[in-house]
């Protein structure tokens, strides 16, 4: 149990998916301009990551390993993720058309979100058991959502700040991200 | 509909072609990858031993130990001369990977921290640190001196524990079984001899009647309690030493260091967090030598608020525990008991045993 | 546009990393050494050029184009993933050190927006030769961008530049001369964000200056 808590904390803070592992930077820079879209994106990604981690992990352990086809891992994983994202797209369209509109192009782009495929592969590389995989993936996704939301709040304020012309937009966002990364990095070893 | 089918078919064909390409490349690269990994593993092994002197068997397993190298004797390969374990445990903020080599008699030969990514400073300390484990029997991990980086050294200790749990499997059958049974070890509460022979072990050799052995503080054999029995063989005595040191009924870290029936004083030493400096409790007994009148604690260690300080002038925790013992006659559990508290609990249990010896022991 | 323009646009005008800001994940993660940057660049080059070629060949025939169009995303993904897996396996066998430095980012080339983006935007509608040139230009432009970031990060963070394996350029003397030590910060995630941000800011400043000059010129 204690080991799971350490794992969860690491996934959320010290090995934070965006600020430490650099996965999911594209939506991080692209969708984080407004709080509502950041939150919506975070929830969609959370759902996709959890679902795809479980499916890909199970497929790897029980199908690929059994048939000694581990090298097909990348292809199989990305196809599973693409299919799941299509499914999520249909669900979001039905359940919340406004969110669907707000996310726009970024919803199908979850397929190419490094975080989703990255987490699926990391679970395998780190030899996680099923429980560890669920905890790790869940807290990685929560960390993603948290940082996205945090960042969107800062960016909303940044719009009103006197940023030098050359830095407007992505550059200043990256500088802010650097500061956030510094803060998150210092949490190592607390748990 | 037809269009959809054709599209699907095209996708399938492309998929199959890609699959075939991958299978081909895999057949080509896999042997190279495996060979590289094997070479890397043998390179690690040769940090300890010359690989050519042995016949090496490699076992890959799941769990904290990922690889077991069994070094068998070249001429007689049923004999395992050494076993090397590649084992990992979670440290402060990273996994610590260690190589631990064990001899055929289950003593630790060499060990090395192979990789760690801890905070610089803490991590560096454990890499070259001598934990004092060489020569120790891996099944008796009592004496482990860890550096101040407690969490990182806990990970190192865990590595040894994982190895301890695994050696039985690898050496099964290789360690000769002795024809005797170990029946237990207790504290020697005889006032005349308890200072020089603090423990008594009971064993049964073959079909004979059980005999009792006096053991010293390090569990080595001193002499027989009953001098007429034959002295057991050295192998048996070595195993007795091992078994005794693993029991929980006695501990060499808590013992009676002085007893004066005339001055009615009893001195108990117990070791807590600080392995090098025992806590010394000097107890004054009543006239019938079966109850505690007063006590004083010297060179104690206590906790300040949250820190692991050791300072001898304000032994708060130790005083608290001793007072509780004297008023309640027992200190069975302390909430959040850690090293020093456990040391005090062991000390009070020993005192209890001693005081009750007249009535046949506790 | 002619082939020269086609090739060069990947470097400056449409640099995938600095202009369209695609493929940022590896750009921040692996640029700790120049060697990593070059290694990743080679991998991306291989995948991008071949995927552009293969997809262009598949889509050249109008009949095939019609059949593939409804399933083109899965088709592209399968092709790209196959190429990436080949790179992964070959690297694991023959360039093991690089494989371990790049880690999870090798399979992540599959979701590198640059490759899928070029396949969709260019290769599926253009001739094979054009596609190859486009792919090469984009890949080399990306490699150049990676090189730039890793150059600053490794130089400022380490005092030396690792070009390939043992081939190192030790510039620690410059630091000693100025009596300062390398700034370890740049080797960490913080440094990645900072370097990338500053380079983008510099580029934005230059672009703004150009625009102002053009406006002034028009007036």
Q: What count of domains describes the coordinates of chain C?
A: 1
Estimated radius of gyration of chain B: 28 Å
Please outline the major beta sheet of chain B: 5 strands, antiparallel
Radius of gyration based on Cα positions of chain C: 19 Å
User: Helix and strand succession of chain B?
Assistant: HEEEEEHHEEEEHEEEEHH
Total count of helical runs of at least 4 residues of chain C: 10
Mean pLDDT of chain C: 85
| Main beta-sheet annotation of chain C | 2 strands, antiparallel
Shape of chain C: globular
The secondary-structure class of chain C comes to mainly alpha
- Quote the beta fraction of chain C: under 5%
- The largest beta-sheet of chain B arranges its strands as 1-2-3-4-5
Strand content of the residues of chain B, in percent? 25-35%
Q: Unreliable stretches of chain C, pLDDT < 50, 5 or more residues? A: none
Fraction of helical residues of chain B: 25-40%
Of all protein chain pairs, which has the greatest interface, and how many residues does each chain bring to it?
Answer: A-C, 45 and 41 residues
Q: Supply the number of helical segments of chain B.
A: 6
Write the layout of secondary structure elements.
The complex is a heterotrimer of chains A (191), B (362) and C (219).
Chain A: H1 2-14, H2 25-30, H3 35-64, H4 73-95, H5 97-103, H6 114-125, H7 130-158, H8 170-185
Chain B: H1 2-45, E1 54-60, E2 65-73, E3 80-90, E4 95-103, E5 108-115, H2 122-128, H3 150-171, E6 180-187, E7 199-205, E8 211-215, E9 221-224, H4 234-246, E10 254-260, E11 265-270, E12 279-285, E13 292-298, H5 316-328, H6 339-355
Antiparallel strand pairs in B: 1-2, 2-3, 3-4, 4-5, 6-7, 7-8, 8-9, 10-11, 11-12, 12-13
Helix pairs in contact in B: 5-6
Chain C: H1 3-8, H2 24-29, H3 34-60, H4 62-68, H5 72-94, H6 96-102, H7 113-121, H8 128-158, E1 160-164, E2 167-170, H9 172-178, H10 189-218
Antiparallel strand pairs in C: 1-2
How would you summarize this macromolecular structure in one to three sentences?
With 362 residues, chain B is of the alpha+beta class.
Structural notes for this entry:
- The complex is a heterotrimer of chains A (191), B (362) and C (219).
- Chain A is an all-alpha fold.
- Chain A has helices spanning 2-14, 25-30, 35-64, 73-95, 97-103, 114-125, 130-158, 170-185.
- In chain A, helix 4 (73-95) packs across helix 5 (97-103).
- The radius of gyration of chain A is 17 Å and the shape is globular.
- By secondary structure, chain B is α+β, with helices and mostly antiparallel strands.
- Chain B folds into three domains: 43-170, no CATH class; 180-245, no CATH class; 254-359, Sufe protein. Chain: A (Alpha-Beta Complex).
- Helix content of chain B is 32%, strand content 26%.
- In chain B, a hairpin with an 8-residue loop joins strand 11 (265-270) and strand 12 (279-285).
- Chain B is elongated, with a radius of gyration of 28 Å.
- By secondary structure, chain C is mainly α.
- Chain C has a two-stranded antiparallel sheet.
- The radius of gyration of chain C is 19 Å and the shape is globular.
- Chains A and C meet through helix 2, helix 4, helix 6 and helix 8 of A and helix 2, helix 5 and helix 10 of C.
